RNA sequence: UGGGAUAUCGCCAAGCGGUAAGGCAGCGGGUUUUGAUCUCGCCAUUCCCAGGUUCAAAUCCUGGUAUCCCAGCCA
């Protein structure tokens, strides 16, 4: 296998190791099989990293296959966005993109094969009757009246279905398995239904479309998939997966293995709920930075590397799980701490006037772009008599815990001088508007000569040289860890999931950062310019805050 | 007595009969011109419960308990 012994193992790797050791397959072939009916989310990322990751580590292959058997719900736009997201995540599928619809001809032939073997029949029960005949979880179902129609007649009937001579819903093709099975999916599952709808890949060639259970196993076999990985809710379906392959003339035998899907605290993962959030305008589209979609996370500033690391850290098992947000945040912090430049921005500014600093003077201070990594270089930051600091970084009087600016006390301006607060001005509402300070000219790059050392360091931006900006402060979308468990998940939306800071001011160097390029606003967190940001109208998104461990009480 | 799965630290997760890895979180110390980073240390005599087998059990057996999934012509 691989050189990196610290790579976490999992039960699927154990299975592959065993299969390889026994010579069951010469190599490993997986697939990622999304239905093109929505945007990919972080739960899909888990599956993508698993399937493509396995292929990479075992020098095997991984296909991208659109499971497009239900044209009513699918759309070509999704097949495009899904490909983009997979590529952005850093993976490359083997060969051409595959579609289940590529195999419609073969699928039809295998269905005929089943009919000829007396193992499939055309059923004329309507949807409601089908449900009644199916029985319940505890009671067996009963056979369809047409279950024993002759092979010849079934062949003719199925032909008519294909030729559009039957009405939608009038009849369907069913496998003849066992109406008394304790696996509901084995009670003569429907193989084909009639739908007179246009398909994004096959246009109007077909009016009968195969169902998932019939399609997936055969598609896997046709593509030579060795390990077909899916989520836990398909565990029962494995019986019909195997039954189909056992009863048609296909030599290769893929095997299905199930793992638990990802659940993340304070968000929802189902396509339906995600869709509700968008259509009910609780968020601004599928790529809203608060969405757990790949597109949303990307716009939020998450990197593909951080997402891959996250998928590695959470592991793959069959246990139901609920991952803490902290796990995801730790991944992006690790990445951005090492890979993003630092800069300064003041989100909620108050003015500081340095009374003993020359009026009109603009001093360019050279500041490191990264405290540990010199390869990030240095930049010039303008310092002036009037600067802006964060409102919460000044108090008239503090306590031993408060390490910021306080009247008659000193604080270090990051990358600049030590200043001492003398007095301040408030508006009619009592809000501090201006703090008057003095600075010690001899503290650039060194401590005051009197031997004192300010205990605090605060960030700042020149009032005259800084650039105005809007900063989107994003927070968790919901107020409870598991919104999906609520009767109405929209009732627990976090009203403060987005706070727009419209009076923010950023240092000039930030004016021409590319969209999506990460930067750390010192002491505040990691940010990136939004898609909509322009040099004249700067907009930044907060990706994640800095880790915050001090006792705020 | 429908069936299928799962139970190891607050959250993830290794472990596959030889005496409980690791990550995240948390807690304490050090460094620091980011209350960040980095760094050092601590953090399950115990593996859902109860019996049993064994020199030895989280791992095997028996019986319970809890949770999740299955009755779309969705995937």
What would you say this structure looks like, in words?
This protein has 553 residues and is of the alpha/beta class. Among the domains are: 119-198, Glutamyl-tRNA Synthetase, domain 3, CATH 3.90.800.10; 345-459, Ribosomal Protein L25, Chain P, CATH 2.40.240; 467-544, Ribosomal Protein L25, Chain P (Beta Barrel). It has helices spanning 11-21, 42-57, 76-88, 104-116, 127-134, 151-162, 212-223, 237-246, 271-279, 294-300, 304-314, 325-339; strands at 29-32, 61-66, 98-99, 120-123, 172-175, 190-194, 208-210, 227-231, 255-259, 341-343, 345-346, 349-354, 363-368, 378-383, 386-390, 394-395, 405-406, 410-413, 418-426, 432-440, 457-458, 460-462, 467-474, 498-506, 519-521, 525-529, 538-545. Strands 10-25-26-27-23-24-11 form a 7-stranded mixed β-sheet, with helices on one face. Helix 2 packs across helix 11 and helix 7 packs across helix 8. It is elongated. Mean pLDDT is 96; it is low at 1-5. It binds one RNA strand of 75 nucleotides through helix 5, strand 6, helix 7, helix 8 and helix 12.
Proportion of helical residues: 10-25%
Name of the CATH superfamily of the domain at 345-459: Ribosomal Protein L25, Chain P
Query: How far do the termini sit from each other?
Result: 51 Å
Looking at the overall shape, the CATH architecture of the domain at 345-459 is Beta Barrel
Tally of DSSP β-strands: 27
The major beta sheet can be summarized as: 7 strands, mixed
User: Which regions contain 5 or more consecutive residues with pLDDT less than 50?
Assistant: 1-5
Instruction: Output the CATH class name of the domain at 345-459.
Output: Mainly Beta
Shape: elongated
- Strand content is 15-25%
Total number of helices: 12
The assembly state of the depicted protein chains is: single chain
Mean pLDDT figure:
96
CA gyration radius, whole angstroms:
31 Å
Classify the secondary structure makeup into a structural class. alpha/beta
Strand order of the largest sheet: 10-25-26-27-23-24-11
């Amino acid at each position: 296998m691989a050189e990196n012994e610290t790579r976490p193992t999992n039960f699927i790797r154990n299975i592959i190791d065993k299969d390889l050791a026994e010579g069951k397959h010469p190599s490993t072939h997986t697939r990622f099989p999304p239905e093109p009916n929505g945007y990919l989310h972080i739960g899909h990322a888990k599956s993508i990293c698993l399937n493509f990751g396995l292929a990479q580590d075992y020098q095997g292959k991984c296909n991208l296959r659109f499971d497009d058997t239900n044209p009513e719900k699918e759309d070509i736009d999704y097949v495009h966005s899904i490909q983009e997201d997979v590529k952005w995540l850093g993976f490359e599928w083997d060969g051409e993109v595959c579609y289940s619809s590529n195999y419609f001809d073969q699928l039809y032939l295998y269905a005929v094969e089943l009919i000829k073997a007396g193992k499939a029949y055309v059923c004329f029960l309507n949807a409601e009757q089908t449900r009644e005949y199916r029985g319940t979880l505890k009671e067996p179902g009963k056979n369809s009246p047409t279950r024993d129609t002759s092979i010849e007649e079934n062949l003719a009937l199925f032909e008519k279905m294909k030729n559009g001579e039957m009405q939608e819903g009038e009849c369907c093709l069913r496998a003849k398995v066992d109406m008394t099975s304790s696996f509901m999916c084995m009670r003569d599952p429907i193989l084909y239904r009639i739908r007179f709808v246009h398909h994004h890949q096959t246009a109007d060639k077909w009016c009968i479309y195969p169902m998932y259970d019939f399609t997936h196993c055969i598609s896997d076999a046709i593509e030579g998939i060795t390990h077909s990985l899916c989520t836990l809710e398909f565990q029962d379906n494995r019986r019909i997966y195997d039954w189909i392959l056992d009863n048609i003339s296909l030599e290769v035998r893929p095997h299905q293995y199930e793992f638990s899907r990802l659940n993340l605290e304070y968000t929802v993962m189902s396509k339906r709920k995600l869709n509700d959030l968008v259509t009910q305008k609780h968020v601004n589209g599928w790529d809203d930075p608060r969405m757990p979609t790949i597109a949303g996370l990307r716009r939020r500033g998450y990197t593909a590397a951080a997402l891959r690391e996250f998928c590695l850290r959470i592991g793959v098992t069959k246990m139901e799980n609920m991952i803490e947000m902290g796990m995801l945040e730790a991944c992006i912090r690790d990445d951005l701490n090492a890979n993003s430049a630092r800069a300064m921005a003041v989100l909620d500014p108050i003015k500081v006037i340095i009374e003993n600093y020359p009026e009109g003077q603009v001093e360019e201070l050279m500041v490191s772009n990264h405290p540990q990594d010199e390869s990030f270089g240095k930049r010039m930051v303008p310092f002036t008599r009037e600067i802006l600091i964060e409102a919460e970084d000044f108090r008239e009087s503090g306590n031993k815990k408060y390490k910021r600016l306080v009247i008659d006390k000193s604080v270090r301006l990051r990358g600049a001088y030590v200043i001492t607060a003398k007095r301040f001005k408030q508006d009619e509402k009592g809000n501090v508007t201006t703090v008057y300070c003095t600075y010690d000219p001899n503290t650039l790059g060194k401590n005051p000569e009197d031997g004192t050392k300010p205990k605090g360091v605060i960030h700042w931006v020149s009032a005259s040289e800084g650039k105005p900006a809007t900063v989107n402060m994003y927070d968790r979308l919901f107020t409870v860890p598991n919104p999906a468990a609520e009767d109405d998940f929209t009732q627990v939306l976090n009203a403060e999931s987005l706070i727009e800071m419209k009076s923010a001011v950023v240092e000039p160097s930030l004016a021409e950062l590319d969209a999506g390029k990460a930067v750390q606003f010192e002491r505040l967190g990691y940010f990136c310019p939004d898609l909509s940001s322009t040099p004249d109208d700067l907009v930044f998104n907060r990706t994640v805050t800095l880790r915050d461990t001090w006792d705020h009480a």
